[in-house]
Amino acid sequence: MRLLAADAVQKANSGHPGTPMGAAPTAYALWQRYLRYDPAAPEWMNRDRFVLSVGHASMLLYALLHLAGVKGSPEVYDGADRPAVTLDDIKHFRQAGSRCPGHPEYRMTAGVEATTGPLGQGLADSVGMAIAGKFLAATYNRPDFTLFDYNVYALCGDGDMMEGIASESASLAAHLRLSNLCWIYDSNTVTIEGHTNIAYSEDVAARFLAYGWNVTTVADANDLTLLDRAYQFFLKNTDRPTLILVHSQIGYGAPNLQDSPKAHGEPLGEAELKLTKEFFGFPPDQSFVVPEEVPKHFAAGIGARGAASHAQWDRLHAGYRAVYPELAKQVDAIAAGTLPEGWDSTLPSFPPDAKGMATRDSSGKVLNALAQRIPWMLGGAADLAPSTKTNLTFEGAGSFEAPGPVGDYHGRNLHFGIREHAMVAAVNGMALSGLRVYGSGFLIFTDYARGAIRLSAIMELPVIHIWTHDSIGVGEDGPTHQPVEQLLSLRAIPGMVVIRPADANEVTEAWRVAMQLKNRPAAIVCSRQPLPTVDRGEFAAAALLAKGAYVLADPTDGKPSVILIGTGSEVALCMAAREKLLGDGIAARVVSMPSWELFEDQDEAYRDSVLPPAITARVTVEEASPLGWDRYAGKSGIVLGMRSFGLSAPIAVAAEHFGFTVERVVAAAKQTLAAT
């Protein structure tokens, strides 16, 4: 394992050999002796999860996957029957086309449970996986049918422990008493800048004891007996998460590089690599050597143990299916990533209403209708559920908590506390476990969760992000709470589907679209203030939201001279401006554009039908950054947006101050007409 890592990094002339070499015994002892994992079925539902949070040590995981003979998943490998990681993949570590990229990538390499790179993310993902494990066990296990009892292990390092997301996640895991969670802290005291004592001097064990974790220490990573005791300590624990603190030497076996930052972030060099091979009794002039006994050794350990456990589970599952067929159907749907029949049959439709309701309120109604039909749908907010309207209020919804007076692991309302970053990462971990999940907060606080939001898109997870308080409509809370650039930043994330609905019925359709996404996350962005509910008998159907943008209102003769384009709350402003322009003899089309991404997915003919190239007089209206709107406004059009931070004032005063008024939209329409 150590020398595969060192050889791969040397050949690539890029990467991190130190942690794979120092942590190899820790990972070996876990995989070979304790991890319940079938290499022939890396997606078995009740497998133990192993998350390499210290993602730069990716060669440690690739060596394990190769030596343990993990099979490639057909859906990941385009139907090919091949190992997850071949020796040729390792020889092409960090090169295009290899299944061994620089950091582990979910959906690229079978056996990689989560994309890890930004430190701390894997730890937070593992908390979500552990939550999922507790929920699945509480929901689907029955007497004599323990269908779910897997454990989650995450290997981390000094860098992970310094990141704030790790602290958020550790605190949450302790509160929820996730006894199925084990973090293995490889403490080698070296980071890229040098010894950790230049920036890091806390007592980590004491910190985790204060959180409420069980903590045990292994003084030497090379002592397999001590590692055995540590893993057994975790397996005997039934009431809280466990931290195993392992002291190791970075670059172990590289005689001149112990405790050296070079061993962390650079190849060893040919001379040092030869000395290392001699140290371990390997031929110094040969590379990528795997004695034939090694795969056999792993096959007799993790392979045989995992196959037996999997076969036993399959027999249990067959009996479960016979006794509990309806529950078994749900378990099958979770495994397949499908929705139950009739999942959208009770979605609400909202009557026309000039006063209307806030889209956060209609979103809450839609969410509750969905969750009642999808028993494995759960989520929550970063302490803001009463404001984001994401409480599940139907009978039996309950709160997900350690069993006690306020809830249990059946509960479907998660209380993440004021931990936005950990919330989104934990939701990612739950999605990686097959659950349909959501997290919510104020749009402005996406800044606090950016890393995990981005990773939901990189991993192509069908997570639903619900962001409310979407504009200067927040009013008196002022610039710190009024989002300006956040919508643009979400739209900039490849794969993210951002939807800002204009009324209650668009909200229903936004959820319908989001729930059917299989490989893309969605951000549903909602208002705090009431928005009029459009009369769909007079104007276009809300179902057209699925196309991203549509003609909401047109002149009776279908020949507009100017197009007004809005999203969210500004669509009502465009509709009012349309009436004013009509009174002035100007025919205007109103386009509701809740989602740029969905609109760009349409063919050119449809896009041109909504925004005819011949009509160059256009006005876009959105209480957010104007960047990007020029693509729809065109050269002659006018973009009305926010060009500064907000203002602490009542909503009407703030709107007047920044020019989001009927009069300003009308004036802009006339200005662009004059210029064309």
Structural account:
With about 675 residues, this protein is of the alpha/beta class. It has 3 domains: about 1-310, Rossmann fold (3-Layer(aba) Sandwich), CATH 3.40.50; about 355-530, 3-Layer(aba) Sandwich (Rossmann fold), CATH 3.40.50.970; about 550-675, Rossmann fold (3-Layer(aba) Sandwich). It contains 26 helices and 20 strands. The strands form 5 sheets. Strands 10-9-11-12-14-13 form a 6-stranded parallel beta sheet, with helices on both faces. The chain has a 5-stranded parallel beta sheet with strand order 1-2-3-7-6, sandwiched between helices. Strand 9 (about 375-380), helix 16 and strand 10 (about 415) form a beta-alpha-beta unit. Helix 8 crosses helix 17.
CATH superfamily of the largest domain: Thiamin diphosphate (ThDP)-binding fold, Pyr/PP domains
The CATH architecture of the largest domain: 3-Layer(aba) Sandwich
Number of helices: 26
Percent of residues in beta strands:
5-15%
Structural class: alpha/beta
| Total separate domains | 3
What's the short version?
With 676 residues, the protein is α/β, with parallel strands linked by helices.
What's the SSE blueprint?
Layout: H1 2-12, H2 18-22, H3 24-33, E1 49-52, H4 58-67, H5 87-91, H6 121-140, E2 152-157, H7 158-162, H8 164-176, E3 181-187, E4 190-191, E5 194-195, H9 204-211, E6 214-218, H10 224-236, E7 242-247, H11 261-265, H12 270-279, H13 293-323, H14 325-336, E8 353-358, H15 359-373, E9 377-381, H16 385-388, E10 413-415, H17 420-432, E11 436-442, H18 450-458, E12 464-468, H19 486-491, E13 497-499, H20 504-515, E14 522-525, E15 530-533, E16 550-553, E17 562-566, H21 570-583, E18 588-592, H22 596-600, H23 604-610, E19 618-621, H24 630-633, E20 638-640, H25 651-658, H26 662-674
Helix pairs in contact: 1-4, 1-12, 3-10, 6-8, 6-17, 8-17, 13-14, 15-20, 17-18, 21-26
